[in-house]
Amino acid sequence: MPLFDEGVALDSERDLWVGLGWVGGGLILLFWSLICPSG
């Protein structure tokens, strides 16, 4: 695995956090809908 430039590493880290944010948000909405199905 080649070493990344700082820019590439920062972009990858940002994309990783954005992905985790979407997954976390989806799980929160899923649990919320299960706990409070009436809305």
From TrEMBL:
Presence of keyword Transmembrane helix: yes
The entry's keywords: Membrane, Transmembrane, Transmembrane helix
Bilayer-spanning residue ranges: 16-35
Annotated protein name in UniProt: Uncharacterized protein
Record organism: Anguilla anguilla
